[in-house]
Specification:
- Helices cover about 35% and strands about 15% of the residues.
- The protein contains 11 helices and 9 strands.
- Strands 8-7-5-6-9 form a 5-stranded parallel β-sheet. Strands 2-1-3-4 form a 4-stranded parallel β-sheet, with helices on both faces.
- Strand 1 (about 15-20), helix 1 (about 25-30) and strand 2 form a beta-alpha-beta unit.
- Helix 6 packs across helix 10.
- The longest helix has 16 residues, at about 90-105.
- The chain starts with 12 loop residues before the first strand and ends in a 32-residue tail after the last strand.
- It holds the Pfam family Amdase.
- InterPro entries: Iso_Racemase_Enz_sf (IPR053714), MaiA/AMDase (IPR026286).
Amino acid sequence: MDVSFLGGPQPQLGVGVVAPFDFALDRELWRWVPDDVSLHLTRTPFVPVEVSLDLARLVSEHETLQAAVQALCAVSPQVISYACTSGSFVAGVAGERAMCAAMAQAGEVVSLTTSGALIEALREIGARRIAVVTPYTKSVTDSLEDYLGEAGITVTGRAYLGLTRHIWKVPYRDVVDMARAAVVGSADALFISCTNLPTYDVIPQLEAELRMPVLSANQVTMWAALRAIGVQAVGPYQALLDPVARRGPAAMTGSEQAGPGEGLTGATPEAAFAGSAPAPDGEALDGLEPPPCPPEDTGGLPPV
């Protein structure tokens, strides 16, 4: 059959993505991308370190990022994004800006990071007080809060799992439980950190239940990258992507009505969850005793 009359595939815009070596959610990133955009992913080199501040620093070294950007430039993307939250907040606001500059210099292309995209998204929806959910240990979660504070964002409550590996296996139900525990006061929005934590399908549910915009690491990364090239990310019932959703229940912030946790006995601004991996180096999970029979695999929760 002669198909020469078709003229070839339709032109595609390209988004380059630099991800950590253990990133496992390629298909989730694609769900925010319209049909006329292609993602081009590359990964940082493997290092034998569990998820920690040390790992965040290793996968965000300028030499590593520049090599990845140069590889991606072979396919001429219109924008390049570093898809790692901890790797882009570990050195603070100045460190994040320096990463963007190093990437842009290496590829002569617009470059951004997940943590920079988060601040951009919070400004877009007018949020300055947020609840935070992470799969990290306490020390990494603390570093995220420090970064947000530098950017003028107040953390009103938080919850974390204390995981050091296998984050992509965390089921949606655990993300929902953490979100309910974190939103204990008057927050403008909820942020779910870590690009390796599945979030796409849970965002609409949480926005409807919590009555506030819900942002996630992968969502803001793709939103900012696509916006940089004049393309709108796709995603049903997500306040960041759809201004109409912001005028609905998702726009009702904690300052307008009691937050989901305010009526709960013993609600605190921070919660950590038993049953996940114990924090390394003796870090205690705030407010909880360790489970009586911890699982043998301390790396994370089982897949769905």
